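Below is one protein, fold included:
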Amino acid sequence: MSEDFNLDIDDLERRMNGALNSLKKEFASLRTGRASASMLETVFVEAYGISTPINQVGTVNIPDPRMITVNVWDKSLVQVVEKAIRESGIGINPQINGTIIMLPIPELNEERRRELSKLAGQYAEGARVAMRNVRRDGMDQIKKAKSEGLSEDDQKLWETEVQEITDSSISAVDMTLSTKQTEIMQV
């Protein structure tokens, strides 16, 4: 068995990168005082009997750094879209102008910036936990192979490789978090 064992390192890396990509999406939804279309990615509208992403019922634009507009294609959905934005928890008060919903981005105060920074830290910790779970899966596979005849030297080599991937991935999370917290705290 020892010569036949081959841990799928690419799968472990793919799963850890998935956790990092998920973190980046969560970070994109955090309001930093600048307008971004990604702030509305988590907003879903009840349209035509199904829950629909906001970008599938209207065009999302950023006309200036402090404004998002949603040009709703179906006039009958304007009120529904406005209500979905208001209830989404993103902290923006929509204003309706015909079929266009304007979302002025208010300046963040210091307390709100700290809250967002703390929330970003929680998102990052969730990504780290996911990566450690992937690491544990890899280590469990190595231990199983060891019980089936994998040599101790091979076991150490595999464990070192899994740990290096984990360290690299967690470092990427830490760098992404640092960048996001700097962006949030900038005045």
